[in-house]
Design brief:
This protein is of the alpha+beta class. Helix content is 34%, strand content 8%. A two-stranded parallel sheet has the order 1-2. The longest helix has 13 residues. The radius of gyration is 18 Å and the shape is elongated. It starts with 10 loop residues before the first helix and ends with a helix. The model has no long low-confidence stretch (mean pLDDT 91).
Length: 71
Amino acid sequence: EGFADHHPYREAEVMALRARAGAAGAELATPEKDMVRIPPAQRDGLLVLPVEARFAPPDALRDFIGRRLDG
């Protein structure tokens, strides 16, 4: 089962996911950006994973944007 990006989770969905994770002996996890989409009453005990974007080389994003702006 999957959910679209930016999905506003309902309490029943989180409860069902918790049950599936528990049955599999797993932890329920979410990226930190999606924590705000989980009902406050369902946030306790979730593993929150930090997300970080990195560009290699570090100047790649700046160069990409500069090329687009220069047309």
